[in-house]
Amino acid sequence: QQQVKQSPQSLIVQKGGISIINCAYENTAFDYFPWYQQFPGKGPALLIAIRPDVSEKKEGRFTISFNKSAKQFSLHIMDSQPGDSATYFCAANLGSNYKLTFGKGTLLTVNP
Amino acid sequence: DGGITQSPKYLFRKEGQNVTLSCEQNLNHDAMYWYRQDPGQGLRLIYYSQIVNDFQKGDIAEGYSVSREKKESFPLTVTSAQKNPTAFYLCASRMLGQAYSGANVLTFGAGSRLTVL
After folding, report:
1. For the sheet containing B76-78, what is the strand order?
2. Which of A25, A28, A57, A62 is the most buried (most CB within 10 A)?
3. How confident is the model at residue A2, as a pLDDT?
4. Largest separation between any pair of C-alpha atoms in chain B
């Protein structure tokens, strides 16, 4: 079973700090690499995504870095805020059949 | 507003009972998916469907069944054969046949929490 490995499992950051979450995938991945943000009791919502032909994408305080040769991608949250406290999931399409495989998630807590 | 509607939000079931979770989307998306979420386990794919009257098993299909009679609807039945059904269930959908453009990403509903008593 193909996997997406996500780390760390949990992360505590002070307000204003940088949060970094890493993911690695096996074999070949297609399509795009999204990050989802989930608040308790809610469904995940797309935060930011990157195409495999791009090495970095930035949207506001959120940046994805993508290393295709290493099969790794990461999420950086600059100037982390208490409102960023949530669970974050990375995902990849590990086949050409349009289904995403998700990492196990990272619980981010940003202390005020 | 376009979106995915899951119902019920909370459901309680006695052991041995089948229950059906509803998922309806008005996004005109081709593909629909069911994921199961457990603490520390991430999101695991149960079933998915790319076209009406066709669906495929995901990674943890045992004990579940689905149907896709309409493009908008993809109900999930949790059968008594599912040994550990207590979980948060998420329905999702997306367009097919297009390169990623930001407009055809996987979109999730708000989820249904099933508890077996």
Report:
1. B4-7, B19-25, B76-78, B64-66
2. A25
3. 64
4. 44
